[in-house]
Design brief:
The protein has a single domain, classed as Rossmann fold. A hairpin with a 2-residue loop joins strand 6 (166-173) and strand 7. It has 185 residues and is α/β, with parallel strands linked by helices. The longest helix has 20 residues, at 146-165. It is built from 5 helices and 7 strands.
């Protein structure tokens, strides 16, 4: 995956502080590059808890002293590639939800989702300066459910693919980000 952009991968457990860290990183890179900030939200309002999480994330972004250009895209994220310029900083939150959406909303064959998402993520990464991807580590609690196991395998292969091609990769635990790959140019 040779692109002009740089992928930055941020992962960790649920509610570990990944999104806050990724937002700070996106703001830092946008200021450094004098670039526009874009937020791709993949969450779908499915219940009260999800609505509260979506609202909380929106409110946090409104309090930041930067302008976020928001894009709600639950599936088919590659369609957004034409929206961005080579100077933009994009934050996609989150890959875990995106995989879930592709499985359930699109009702695709599971083996095709990984291929499709890799293609979509490559397209996005080529359309901007920085693509910051947030994802959850879902294998901390193993499952015996075959569907959950397959979901975890898809997500783990995507994580591996992204880290291999990332400029930087971070693991966030308890609000503490640990750099696992890359650094300042």
């Amino acid at each position: 995956m040779e692109t002009k952009s740089s992928i930055i991968f941020v992962t960790g457990g649920v509610r570990s502080g990944k999104s806050s860290f990724a937002e700070s990183l996106a703001i830092e890179y946008a200021r450094k590059e004098k670039a526009d900030l874009h937020y791709i939200a993949t969450a779908v309002n499915t219940d009260t808890e999800m609505q509260e999480r979506i609202t909380r994330h929106q409110q946090i972004r409104k309090t930041q002293k930067v302008k976020w250009n928001s894009h709600e895209q639950a599936v088919d994220i590659g369609e957004l590639a034409g929206v961005f310029s080579e100077k933009d900083v994009i934050l996609l939150d989150c890959l875990t939800v995106l995989v879930n959406n592709e499985l359930f909303l699109k009702d695709q064959r599971q083996e095709m989702i990984e291929v499709k998402l890799k293609k979509d993520l490559v397209e996005l990464s080529r359309s901007c300066r920085y693509l910051i991807l947030v994802s959850n580590e879902v294998t901390y609690e193993p499952s015996t459910d075959p569907f959950v196991q397959n979901y975890s395998r898809i997500l783990n292969r995507l994580h591996y693919f992204l880290v291999q091609h990332a400029k930087e990769a971070y693991l966030v635990e308890l609000g503490i980000a640990q750099r696992k790959k890359g650094g300042e140019e």
